[in-house]
Amino acid sequence: MSRLEATQIHLSRGPRPVLTGVDFAVAAGQCVGLIGPNGAGKSTLLSVLAGLLEPSGGQVSLDGTPLAAVPRADRARRIGYLEQGAACHWPLRVDRVVTLGRLPHASPWGGESPADRAAIARAMDQCEVSHLAARTVTHLSGGERARVMLARALAGEPALLLADEPAAGLDPHHQLHVMELLAGLAAAGTGVVVVLHDLALAARYCTHLVLLDEAGLVAASGPPAALLADGVMERVYGVELLRGERDGVPYVLPWRQRPVREQQA
Question: Which of 3, 103, 130, 158 has its CA 20 to 30 A from that of 122?
Fold first, then answer.
């Protein structure tokens, strides 16, 4: 069972602390939503978890081994990372972009194996981009390109997937599709961490939420229903929330800004 764990992570940019003593963990079968206001350090934490940023304090471990000690090739096979607004600057065909996701599994003798081709086809189908296979990625819309880059991450069949705002910029149909896909991957055994600003999607599709505040501290962590119930999200975001339930699933909508004096109380 794959597990990625961060303990007492500290990171600053100049004199400003971005992450302050953050503890975080995701295991196989979980879909963890990383939420919080702008500047709370969500993307920074995701980069630390991926091994792309070195924290000034604390440690990240993968299945009990310090992440820094895990060989890069092994790390690339086990952890998939989708950066926010992932871009492709070369005029490649869509199917070739998705194929790049198989590089961690590439044979030293070159060429695609049947397993590679199956994984690529499956990822394109999952992200609903198979019909775009022969298109040039730089000629796609922003939403289409975002789904192609998600397909590239999925083509590597990682045990753990870190996705930074994968639903941003998508139309409602594809927002729901992407979140259903991520929740389905978690249900099938993948550990998923997803940065989200849409609280309704976070509450509906994630099995666990971690809320960062503007000081880079974990303000709350737990099942979505628990965070929705105690008012901590309203305090951290400075908004009033409209709560409801549909088909036994709680939902939340930001309704209005809270007066500044209430936020400071």
Answer: 3
Q: What is the CA radius of gyration of the chain?
A: 19
Q: How many domains does the chain have?
A: 1
Q: Quick: pLDDT tens for 98-113.
A: 999 999 888 766 678 8
Phi, psi of 208 (to 5 degrees): -155, 145
DSSP for 81-124, written as a single string: EE-TT----S--BHHHHHHGGGGGG--TT-S--HHHHHHHHHHH
Measured between alpha carbons, how far is 130 from 124 in angstroms, rounded to an integer? 5
Under 8 Å between Cβ of 164 and 84: yes
Domain that holds residue 156: 3-264
CATH number, domain with residue 8: 3.40.50.300
Strand runs labelled E in the chain:
3-13, 16-27, 31-35, 57-62, 65-66, 79-82, 160-164, 191-195, 208-212, 218-222, 239-246, 249-257
- Please report how many Cα atoms fall inside a 13 Å half-sphere around the Cα of residue 45, on the Cβ side: 36
Query: Measured in whole angstroms, how far is the alpha carbon of residue 238 from the centre of its chain?
Result: 24
Single pTM value for the model: 0.92
Cβ neighbourhood burial of 90 (10 Å; 0-12, 13-18, 19+): exposed
**Beta strand 191-195 with 160-164: parallel, antiparallel or unpaired?**
parallel
Return the minimum-mean-pLDDT range out of 56-70, 78-92, 115-129: 78-92
- How do residues 36-46 score in pLDDT, each as one tens digit? 999 999 999 99
